[in-house]
Amino acid sequence: MSVAPPAAGPSFAGSRAYPVRPFLAASVAVFRDGLVLLAERAAPPGDRRFSLPGGLVEPGETIREAALRELREETGVVAEIVGFNDHVEVIERDAEGRVAAHFVVTSFVGRWVSGEAATGPEALRTVWVAPDAVDHLATTPQLPAILLRAAAIAARG
């Protein structure tokens, strides 16, 4: 017996606004010569702020695969995963208190393999920075703490 998929509503049609459930995403802190790769986001949430390259997990894809795919798509960089870091929850509410956006982002730590960071439709700028020196950048709120934990994991890996 097969079960039919839910009827396509706003959240199933690709809309990320006012979701009926959180969206699962993956990101990766890629290290190269002690520096970590950040991308300035082109779209919400966090547009015009630096964050780790990442995006939504696609059906049938593991979160590790999604993190590496998003990294390649957004920046052209190839990496290998060396460990799991943490997760970040992004919950935005509108003026009435309704959930306007909800993402759960898994964060991995990676080691650079190849490719030079490039910009594109999702990444306005890319920078390689010391993980403890992002004070001069506009970042997503939880990024500084994520980077410090990622640096410790990268040093062990």
The multimeric state of the shown protein is: single chain
Overall spatial form: globular
Radius of gyration computed on alpha carbons = 16 Å
The string of secondary-structure elements, in order, is: EEEEHEEEH
Q: Please, how many helices?
A: 2
Q: Would you tell me the overall average pLDDT? A: 89
**Beta strands, count:** 7
What helical percentage do the residues reach?
10-25%
Which runs of at least 5 residues are low in confidence (pLDDT < 50)?
1-13
End-to-end gap:
46 Å
Question: DSSP strand (E) fraction?
Answer: 35-45%
Structural class estimated from helices and strands: alpha+beta
Largest sheet: 7 strands, mixed
Please give a quick description of this structure.
The chain is α+β, with helices and mostly antiparallel strands.
Explain what the structure shows.
The chain has 157 residues and is of the alpha+beta class. Helix content is 17%, strand content 39%. It is built from two helices and seven strands; from the N terminus they run ββββαβββα. It has helices spanning 63-75, 143-156; strands at residues 23-32, 35-41, 50-51, 54-56, 78-93, 99-114, 123-129. Strands 1, 2, 3, 4, 5, 6 and 7 form a seven-stranded mixed β-sheet that branches. The longest helix has 14 residues, at 143-156. The chain is globular and about 45 Å long. The protein starts with 22 loop residues before the first strand and ends with a helix.
